[in-house]
Design a protein that fits this description.
The chain is α+β, with helices and mostly antiparallel strands. 34% of the residues lie in helices and 24% in strands. The protein has an 8-stranded mixed beta sheet with strand order 1-7-6-5-2-3-4-8, with helices on both faces. Helix 3 links the parallel strand 3 and strand 4. Helix 2 runs parallel beside helix 3. The radius of gyration is 19 Å and the shape is globular.
Length: 191
């Protein structure tokens, strides 16, 4: 499922260990999310990250295909827009809603009728060989605080990506209105 080691090598089952952390190499967010969903069963997933990758998005798709992800929302950073533009279709296909904001947080929230799981990490949804710090908790108060912060960013400090690039392309490729262009030339984006 992931390029790292199994999360079970670093963490214990959440039912008996409601607060745990790891500092080191080998624990990657996609593998961790799969490990969490194996314990919770199907759940809503909210992901906040500075940057994501095609590998994470493909793996997330596989979790959805297995029926483990119900509702899903991705909040990514606006400044990572060059990479975001390259991945935006894949992001839209894998998440029910995608938002861009000034965001450097790396949080995953997993929730269903029985579980509220919060993951706070230093790691983006990318793969690397650097040591990362990850905290996993089932504490409802922490989940609620992180969820409220997530909602605040989404509702008041972001733009929704879903369809944004298509709307901009449509807006910027209307036929030119100039009298010296009877052929109906198209405007290049940004001109």
């Amino acid at each position: 499922m992931s390029k790292g080691k199994s999360p079970s090598e670093f963490l214990r089952p959440m039912a008996t260990n409601p607060l745990q952390s790891h500092l080191g190499r080998g624990l990657h967010t996609l593998g961790l999310l799969g490990w969490i969903l194996e314990q919770t069963g199907p759940a809503d997933v909210y992901v906040s990250t500075f940057s994501t990758s095609d590998a994470f998005l493909r793996g997330f798709y596989n979790l959805k295909k297995k029926g483990l992800v119900l509702k899903s929302v991705l909040l990514a950073d606006l400044k990572a827009s060059k990479k975001t533009y390259r991945l935006y279709k894949e992001m839209q296909q894998n998440f029910d809603a995608v938002y861009l904001s000034q965001n450097h947080s790396k949080v995953m929230l997993v929730q269903n009728d029985r579980w509220t799981v919060t993951v706070i990490s230093s790691q983006n949804q990318t793969y690397g060989d650097r040591a990362e710090c990850t905290l996993v908790t089932t504490n409802q108060e922490i989940f609620y605080q992180q969820y409220c912060g997530f909602r605040e960013l989404v509702d008041n400090n972001s733009i929704q990506l879903n369809g944004l690039f298509e709307r901009l392309i449509e807006q910027n490729t209307r036929p030119c209105q100039s009298t010296d262009s009877p052929s109906g030339d198209f405007r290049i984006i940004g001109y």
